[in-house]
Design a protein that fits this description.
Layout (H helix, E strand, L loop, with lengths): L2 E3 L5 H13 L3 E2 L12 E2 L1 E5 L2 H14 L3 E6 L2 E6 L4 E5 L8 E8 L6 E3 L2 E4 L5 E3 L7 E5 L4 E3 L2 E4 L1 E12 L3
Antiparallel strand pairs: 1-12, 2-4, 3-7, 4-6, 5-15, 6-15, 7-13, 8-12, 8-15, 9-14, 10-11, 10-13
């Protein structure tokens, strides 16, 4: 169910998304609908209203996850992880939000930061880092445990989005 599209988003598009994300107010990210601060997360986020990027992500999901019915695509969230920032082990889905699929796009060049790996938890409960190649799109079920390890040098930028709906019986 995990799909990884290496270097799918071109460098120029990554640069444009970073520029747009940085131009918007950067909020301290918390958890849940209330954005409550937590020891489990340290990062800054902003929201991007880019219809082209939203449509691109939506098309990617409906093309590769035909057994899911997508009822809503949440807003694009741009995340900035500076030295020491992280997002501890968590799932994007809970009993209230109806999220079924999560997307993460690696926007930074790997040479621009250290640490900050997106890790997905698999069989046996151990986390596995996903490629940090620039422009890579990772799609995974929202109920999959994952984390972003602490950044130890530089700045990591990413774009995330969630899709709500349900799995079809067809």
């Amino acid at each position: 169910m995990i799909k990884i599209f290496k270097s799918l988003v071109p460098n120029m598009a990554c640069d444009t998304i970073i520029k747009e994300g940085k131009s918007r107010p950067q909020l301290d990210a918390g958890l849940g609908q209330t954005n409550k601060k937590s020891k489990g997360r340290s990062t800054k986020v902003s929201f991007i209203n880019n219809e082209f990027t939203k449509s691109f992500m939506h098309e990617l999901v409906i093309t590769h996850y035909k057994n899911y019915v997508i009822e809503e695509a949440e807003d694009l969230q741009f995340a900035t992880y500076n030295v020491g920032d992280f997002y501890g082990p968590h799932c994007d889905a809970d009993e209230n939000n109806k999220r079924i699929l999560s997307i993460s796009v690696q926007l930074s060049k790997p040479s621009e930061y250290e640490g900050g790996d997106l890790c997905l938890y698999g069989i046996g409960g151990s986390p596995s880092p996903v490629t940090n190649e620039r422009g890579t799109v990772i799609i995974f079920p929202s109920n999959l445990l994952h984390e972003v390890e602490p950044v130890t040098k530089g700045t990591r930028y990413s774009l995330v989005q969630w899709f709500k709906g349900y799995e079809s019986s067809n």
